[in-house]
Amino acid sequence: MAAKAFRYGLAVIFIAAGLALAAGFDRMGHRAEVLGLPVPLRIAAGLWQVVAGGFLLWPGRLGYGAAMGFAAAAAASAAHVAVLGLDSAPPALALALATGLIFWRNRGDLRR
User: Fold this and answer.
1) pLDDT tens track for 19-53
2) Which end of the chain has less neighbouring CB within 10 Å, N or C?
3) For the stretch 67-96, what's the b/e string if a residue is b when 16 or more beta carbons lie within 10 angstroms of its beta carbon?
């Protein structure tokens, strides 16, 4: 039960962050500008996160959602460390760790 609630929480985080990034809302849009991310790439990255969150809600596709979420969080972590600084990196690092653990537990989904 707790694992399902944790997974649903991660899905909500990814969906909300993806929609904010795709729309260029507030901090997410500002960070994308600082990184020099073109608008089409920013929208694609946001939609990638939304799809990852959707897969985290879909039984049998958790491995795909976790892999997509890990890729997004790892890229965000690298961008934070390289460009924005370490002070903004912990949330992205925590998401990378959480999705990495979910992926490890559900890696069998990728063989289906």
Assistant:
1) 999 998 877 777 788 788 888 999 999 999 999 99
2) N
3) bbbbbbbbebbebbeeeeeeeebeebbebb
User: In the chain, how many domains are there?
Assistant: 1
Tell which phi-psi region holds residue 24, choosing left (phi > 0), alpha (psi between -120 and 50) or beta.
Answer: left
- Residue from 68, 76, 74, 71 nearest 109 by CA: 68
Confidence of residue 16 (pLDDT cuts 50, 70, 90): very high
Supply the range of the domain harboring residue 34: 2-111
pTM: 0.87
Chain centre to alpha carbon of residue 110: 18
The position carrying tokens 């990814």 is 14
Distance CA 66, CA 38 (A): 25
Length reported for the chain = 112
